[in-house]
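Retro notes - structure team

What went well: the batch runner handled both jobs without manual restarts.
What didn't: labels got mixed up in the shared folder, which is why I'm recording both outputs here explicitly, each with its sequence directly above its tokens.

Job 1
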Amino acid sequence: MRLYRLTASFPREELYGLTTQLRRSSSSIPANLAEGCGRNGDAEFARSCSIAAGSASELEYHLLLAKDLELMKLQEDEELVQRTTEVKRMLAAFLQKLSAEC
């Protein structure tokens, strides 16, 4: 939710660019996890987790780009990057656990 509120203040010319990319990549993370939960077996769930991790990496890049373009305050950027990094760590640990079970 925080990302949606933050991107609402982005310039209008970014509406179909960076705003959309940030929102899409951030919402793809939980959406892929939810989809994986609906699949059969750990292998398919692991694949969905891997896709979610890719979306988290994409989000991380878009946050860096928004920072470079000075669309966010430093404090906002640091917090969102920190949260994204934590999500990536959790997904990596979870994927490792799933891989050990497969």
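Job 2
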Amino acid sequence: MTVIEGISKDMNPEEILRKLKKKLACGGTYKDGKLELQGDHREKIKKLLSSEFGFNEEQIEVIV
């Protein structure tokens, strides 16, 4: 499971989740302020969040 934290409500996390699920061809949910994606997407998530959603890549921390 890949968990993404720190996305505020005003950034529309449900919409981000929907798009990530489509791009990564996986299932997932939004609960307790976290996006949870099925599978290990650590290699792809940083690039997707920065290129597709405009997040600052230097502020994204990938934890093993």
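One thing worth noting from job 2: The longest strand covers residues 28-31.
We'll revisit the folder naming next retro.
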